[in-house]
C-alpha cells in the first residue's frame, strides 16, 4: 500500500472517530448532568479522551510521514509508535481519574434520576461505540496502525462501559438500588488494565520486536529464486515505523563468482526485494559455496549430521572448506531456549574439531532473528 494512501486512510478514520465521539460526549454530558449520574458523566469524559486520541493519531501520522533528512536519515515513521504510547497513557489516565471519582461517590453516594429518553440515548451510544470500535480496529489492521488499533480497542471497551451504565440505570429504575459508583470502580479498573496492556505492547514495538516470520520467509524465498543462490541467511530487519523496514542478509553463492557477477546479483536482489516487499536491503554479505571439491561436500554433510544431535542448534550455514589453509568456516544458529548458548556452541565446535583434527575451525555463533531457522534447516 502506498504511504500517501495509507496516511489518508488513517486520517479519514480518525476524523470519523473524532466526530462520533464529540457527538456522543455532548449527548452524555447533558444526560449525565440532568440525571445526576456520575457514570454517564464519566462515560462522556471518556468519549472526549477518545476524540483526543484520534487527534493525536492524526498528528502522529502527519509527523511520521515527513521525508528523511540529515538528522533523521531513516525517516520519522517511529513517531507513530510514540503517538500510540500517548493514547495508551490517555486511556490509563482516564481509568485512574474514573476510579478516583467512583470511590468518592461510593463514600458519598448521590441518587440518580433517569428518564426513558436518557436510556434510549445511552443505548444508541452503545450501538454507535460497537460499530465505531469494530470499524476503527479493522482499519488499524488494514493500515498497520497501532494508534488506530488502540483507539478501536478503546472504543469497544467504551461500549461495554456504556452498556454497564445502561444496566445500572435499569436496575435502579426497577429495584431502586444504585450500583453506579461500584460499577464505575469496576469499569475504571478494566480501563486501567487495558491502558497498561496497550502501553506494554507499544513499548515492546519501540524496543524492537522480531519481524513477522511470514515476511522473513517470503523475502528469503524471493532471494533464493535467483539462479545460483543456494541459501539466504542472517536476515536482519530494522523497523523504522509501520511498513518501513531496511536490513541486511547473507547469500550463499558459488565460489567461482567474480566481483562483477556478485555486484550484479546483489543489485538485482536489492531491487527485487524492494519491489516485492518494500524492504530496503542496505547490505548483502556473501558466503562462498564449495563447487570444486567432492571432499568439501562430504565434510559439509558430516558436520550437518553432528549438528542434528544438538536440539538447541537450529541451523548450520555459511560452510566453506579452504583446503589451502586447511580451514573449515561455518556459522551456528543457537536457540534462545538454550540454557547456555555458548556451551552448546562450544560442544558442537569441539566435536567437529575432533572429527577433523587436521583442520582449523573458524565458527561463529548466530542469532535467529526471525524464528524460522529450524524450519529452513
Short description:
The chain is of the alpha/beta class and 377 residues long.
What would you say this structure looks like, in words?
β2 (245-254), α8 (259-277) and β3 (279-289) form a beta-alpha-beta unit. The longest helix is centred in the first third of the chain and has 33 residues, at 3-35. The chain has helices spanning 3-35, 38-64, 79-107, 116-142, 146-175, 180-207, 213-224, 259-277, 294-308, 341-355, 373-376; strands spanning 231-239, 245-254, 279-289, 313-322, 327-334, 360-366. The mean pLDDT is 84. The chain has a 3-stranded mixed β-sheet, with helices on one face. With 377 residues, the chain is α/β, with parallel strands linked by helices.
Q: C-alpha Rg, in Å?
A: 29 Å
Q: Which geometry do the CA atoms define?
A: elongated
Strand order in the largest sheet: 1-2-3
Helical segment count: 11
Q: Label the structural class.
A: alpha/beta
Residue runs with pLDDT of under 50 for 5 or more positions? none
Number of strands: 6
Secondary-structure element order, as H and E? HHHHHHHEEHEHEEHEH
Tell me the helix content: 55-70%
Explain the layout of strands and helices.
Blueprint: H1 3-35, H2 38-64, H3 79-107, H4 116-142, H5 146-175, H6 180-207, H7 213-224, E1 231-239, E2 245-254, H8 259-277, E3 279-289, H9 294-308, E4 313-322, E5 327-334, H10 341-355, E6 360-366, H11 373-376
Parallel strand pairs: 2-3, 5-6
Antiparallel strand pairs: 1-2, 4-5
Helix pairs in contact: 1-2, 1-4, 2-3, 2-5, 3-5, 3-6, 4-5, 5-6, 7-8
Amino acid at each position: 500500500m502506498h504511504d500517501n494512501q495509507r496516511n489518508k486512510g488513517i486520517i479519514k478514520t480518525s476524523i470519523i472517530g473524532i466526530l462520533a465521539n464529540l457527538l456522543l460526549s455532548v449527548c452524555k454530558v447533558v444526560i449525565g448532568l440532568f440525571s445526576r449520574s456520575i457514570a454517564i458523566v464519566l462515560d462522556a469524559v471518556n468519549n472526549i479522551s477518545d476524540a483526543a486520541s484520534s487527534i493525536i493519531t492524526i498528528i502522529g501520522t502527519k509527523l511520521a510521514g515527513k521525508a528523511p533528512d540529515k538528522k533523521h536519515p531513516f525517516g520519522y515513521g517511529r513517531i507513530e509508535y510514540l503517538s500510540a504510547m500517548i493514547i495508551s497513557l490517555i486511556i490509563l489516565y482516564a481509568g485512574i481519574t474514573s476510579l478516583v471519582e467512583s470511590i468518592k461517590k461510593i463514600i458519598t453516594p448521590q441518587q440518580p434520576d433517569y428518564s426513558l429518553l436518557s436510556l434510549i440515548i445511552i443505548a444508541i451510544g452503545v450501538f454507535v461505540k460497537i460499530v465505531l470500535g469494530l470499524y476503527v480496529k479493522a482499519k488499524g489492521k488494514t493500515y498497520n496502525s497501532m494508534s488506530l488499533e488502540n483507539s478501536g480497542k478503546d472504543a469497544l471497551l467504551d461500549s461495554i462501559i456504556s452498556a454497564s451504565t445502561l444496566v445500572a440505570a435499569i436496575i435502579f429504575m426497577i429495584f431502586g438500588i444504585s450500583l453506579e459508583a461500584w460499577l464505575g470502580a469496576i469499569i475504571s479498573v478494566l480501563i486501567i488494565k487495558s491502558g497498561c496492556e496497550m502501553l506494554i505492547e507499544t513499548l515492546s514495538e519501540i524496543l524492537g520486536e522480531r519481524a513477522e516470520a511470514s515476511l522473513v520467509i517470503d523475502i528469503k524465498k524471493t532471494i533464493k529464486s535467483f539462479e545460483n543462490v543456494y541459501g539466504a541467511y542472517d536476515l536482519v530487519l530494522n523497523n523504522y515505523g509501520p511498513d518501513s523496514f531496511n536490513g541486511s542478509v547473507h547469500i550463499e553463492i558459488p565460489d567461482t563468482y567474480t566481483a562483477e557477477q556478485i555486484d550484479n546479483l546483489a543489485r538485482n536482489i536489492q531491487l527485487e526485494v524492494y519491489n516485492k516487499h518494500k524492504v530496503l536491503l542496505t547490505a548483502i554479505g556473501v558466503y562462498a559455496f564449495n563447487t570444486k571439491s567432492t571432499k568439501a561436500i562430504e565434510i559439509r554433510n558430516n558436520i550437518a549430521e553432528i549438528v542434528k544431535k544438538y536440539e538447541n542448534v537450529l541451523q548450520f550455514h555459511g560452510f566453506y572448506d579452504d583446503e589451502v589453509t586447511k580451514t573449515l568456516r561455518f556459522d551456528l544458529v543457537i536457540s534462545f531456549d538454550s540454557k547456555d548458548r555458548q556451551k552448546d556452541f562450544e560442544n558442537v565446535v569441539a566435536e567437529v574439531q575432533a572429527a577433523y583434527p587436521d583442520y582449523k575451525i573458524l565458527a561463529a555463533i548466530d542469532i535467529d532473528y526471525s524464528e524460522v531457522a529450524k524450519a529452513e534447516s
